[in-house]
Amino acid sequence: MTRQTAVIIGAGISGLTTAVYLQRSGIQTLILEKATGPGGVSTSWKRKGYTFEGGIHWLIGAKKEVPLHQIWLETGALQENNPVYFKDPIYTLVDEKGTMPLYRDLHGLEITGLRDRLALWRLRFHLACFKHFHQPIGDLRGLKVRDPKPFSAWEYVKMLPAVVVTPFLMAQSARGYAKWFKSPRVRALLAAVVEPDINALSLIYTLGTFQVGDSGYPKGGSLRMAQNMADTFLRCGGEIRYHTPALELSVEGKRWSVHTKDEVFSADAVVVSADARSAIDTLFKEPLQDGWAKKMRSGLRTTQCMFLGVGVQADLSTYPRSMQIVLPHSLEAAGRTYKTVVVNNYAAEEGYAPEGCSVITCLLHGPTYGYWKAAKEDGSYVTKKEAVTVAFIEAVGEVIPALRDAVAVTDMATPLTYERYCGTFEGSYMTDWPPFGRLYHAPIRYRYGLYFTGQRTAYSGGLPPAAQSGRVTAQTICKDLGVEFI
Ligand SMILES: Cc1cc2nc3c(=O)[nH]c(=O)nc-3n(C[C@H](O)[C@H](O)[C@H](O)COP(=O)(O)OP(=O)(O)OC[C@H]3O[C@@H](n4cnc5c(N)ncnc54)[C@H](O)[C@@H]3O)c2cc1C
Predict the structure, then answer these.
(1) Which fold has domain 302-426?
(2) What's the rounded Cα separation, in Å, for the pair 145 and 115?
């Protein structure tokens, strides 16, 4: 019998997850990736001897007892070469009064007065509700599975408290939730955890993962983790072609083909792990007009950011690892005003900078795609990027003077950078999930033989949905092709 085949568009975390499972299950799999390496938006890169981490800030499922951990092990994402470091405090507020840490168990927060005590009690209560909440990693019904992952009814029962409080949390923003605290310092600290305008469920879910000792940072960051997955796939006999963008999909009978500049690849299963929101408009002969695609087009809101990385010829290891800095003077960048910035400091981590030097990075959130697109069109893109970098160094340099005096190298990515390298819609890296917001997903199985995977097939985005959807897609394909899932 001839071996069944799959072609996957994209070597991001979801594409790699799908690929490893398919290849393990005996389906000969080829990945076509437009970029020069694996990881998609979850990546890091080097500039003049400094490494900028442009992806993982925390990895859910890093803790052994969390079900998702199995996927990271099975896909080779976590190995001996990237042990996980679990930072505590998670963030430290830096303002004119000094510092205040946000520890995993919330001790040490500045709590004064009855209102703050009640707000802290409420926060602890919601976190307690999420103590046993995990993304279940199950198996598709009717699928032959070598190593089944049964999820017991008791596991679901333990998650009930989280389910009960979820509608309440989804109905308000993280910013609104933080306002229950009177202390502006606690509010500012909580604003570091997730984007304040998304719903409070994301805040509690994220803090909940820290509370149970999950959400760590694997040594070597995004690139090592993605490279580990790619190496695992190759070791299983798979093939990756970098620098090979898929240009179009076509179908004859039930067999789909992927067209690149030079070749056409047809397979029993074709998987689109590239951003589904972009794919529905760009990868098909005609833009897709299915109901879900129309809804995605009109309803999906994107999360965008500007990434700044600075290599500094100074040892910044006396500064906290992750800081929420209240700026003495606001930062004006890309038509937006930032009064606070979250700064990650890699000074204490091995391999990010030459001896005695440091790297700091920062994500400036907000919908700036239109701003940068206009700048590209009128020729001011480079100048405007330089202006943002200068303004950032000026503003943060008031708090970390070495930034003004000892800059070795800077780098900046805009949503246009993400669009160019990873093909994401509006250069986004997640889907925005506001209070009361609906999410619009692509289906895992679109037509027989054609599948989607990745963060736009699951809820708002991030590495867990990327990995989980990758596994579900691989299981769906195995089921359709009558193959045992390994
Ligand atoms: C700065 C930053 C920080 C983040 N921090 C975290 C964090 O701390 N924790 C967390 O969980 N998540 C985080 N995320 C989000 C997380 O990285 C993403 O949600 C996840 O990696 C998405 O994976 P994906 O496989 O669905 O998509 P992608 O990463 O977008 O992968 C799609 C792949 O398809 C390729 N591709 C696109 N079009 C084509 C084409 N036509 N032909 C061939 N290949 C194509 C792309 O190049 C890419 O490699 C962060 C993201 C960013 C950018």
Answers:
(1) Polyamine Oxidase; Chain A, domain 2 (3.90.660)
(2) 52
Ligand 1 centroid to Cα of residue 356, in Å, is: 32
Ligand 1 binding residues, C-beta < 6 A: 9-15, 32-35, 40-42, 54-58, 245-246, 273-275, 307, 363, 422-424, 429-430, 454-455, 461-464, 466
d(CA 72, CA 178): 32
pLDDT tens readout for residues 430-473: 888 888 777 788 999 999 999 999 989 987 789 999 999 999 99
Choosing from 41, 273, 452 the residue with most ligand 1 atoms within 8 A of its CB, the one to mutate for a pocket test is 41
Is the domain covering 5-43+63-81+220-301+437-481 a CATH 3.40.190.10 domain? Answer: no
| Atom 15 of ligand 1, nearest CA residue | 462
12 CA to centre of ligand 1 in angstroms:
5
Cα→Cα distances 154→133, 151, 159, 310, Å: 12, 8, 9, 48
pLDDT per residue over 364-420, tens digit each?
A: 999 999 999 999 999 999 999 999 999 999 999 999 999 988 999 999 999 999 999
Domain boundaries, the chain: 5-43+63-81+220-301+437-481, 104-139+148-212, 302-426
Q: Which of 288, 277, 272, 231 is nearest to 33 (CA)?
A: 272
| pLDDT tens digits along 227-247 | 999 999 999 999 999 999 999
